[in-house]
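Marked as duplicate of an earlier ticket. Keeping the data here for the record.
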Amino acid sequence: MRTVFFDIDTQIDFLFPAGALYAPGAEKIVGTVAKLNHHAAKHRIPVVSTMDAHSENDPEFHDWPHHCVVDTMGQQKPASTLLEKRVIVPNSLCAPYLTLNDQILLEKQTFSALSNLNFALLLDHFAAERYVVYGVVTEVCVKFAAFGLLETGKRVEIVTDAVCALNEENGAKTLAEFTAMGGHLTHAGMIYA
């Protein structure tokens, strides 16, 4: 079954206590995210790693603290989650060079990975039957990605031990809603098996 992994917004500003928009406990999933990404590379499974890429005056900052501003430390991904062969795909129409890369760093300026103008092109290119989703935060960016991927009619799984919520109750509600819509919950051990 053709599979694509979606590593959602695992960036320093979200993952670590010093980050601008830290999700409490998120640092605990970094090792699992790294293992999932490297497992994918080993098994030739593409990894789409979304990244907030905000400008200094991004409209999103009316509702949220400044975070993941382009070229800041907070916008970066932990080195352990990066794969050797990777390419950055900006949020502008382009023909991304995908064939020799294990990891696509997909930039976005909103909650939804689907907002990147190249998102549909990526889905068409990979022609996957299964999407595996993990990252931060469960009730916001992970939700938008997973729910958007459900609309493809393909199998979508959220890796429950590789996500972290800003609010545990809202995170649990998101997972319940996801399964009610036909999504599947899994854990990293099932992926590695």
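See parent ticket for discussion. The chain has one domain: 3-192.
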